[in-house]
Design a protein that fits this description.
113 residues, OB fold (Dihydrolipoamide Acetyltransferase, E2P), 9 strands
């Protein structure tokens, strides 16, 4: 598995042609404690920079952009009933998954150790 870091603190984990995307502490810290997550639609095509996820906290609603272009093939539905898991273990909770990504966009992201 390959791991990369997005420009806003997202973590990306690639297994073959599937890329799971989550939001690490660096991404979530400015948002505060998340109490709601708006997920992308399965089947949606995202371009790099498109709003992919909306997180709501006591501070505000925050739009989070996709770090890669691709097709949404899966979302973590457990976040609809339990978004607090993002606050507890952000480095382990994936939010959505893409296929059909741009290799150039992937290679441009720094490796995550």
């Amino acid at each position: 598995m390959q791991r990369r870091e997005g420009p806003c603190g997202e973590w990306l984990e690639r297994d073959g042609d599937l890329v799971r995307i989550g939001y690490g502490k660096r991404a979530l810290e400015p948002i505060g404690e998340v109490f709601w997550a708006g997920l992308p639609q399965v089947g949606a095509t995202l371009q790099k920079g498109d709003v992919a996820v909306v997180f709501e906290s006591a501070k505000a609603a925050t739009d989070c952009e996709s770090p890669l272009s691709g097709c949404v093939v899966d979302v973590n539905l457990s976040l609809q009933s339990s978004p607090a898991q993002l606050n507890e273990s952000p480095e382990q909770v994936w939010v959505y998954a893409l296929k059909g990504i741009s290799e150039g966009e992937w290679e441009a992201l720094p490796e995550l150790e």
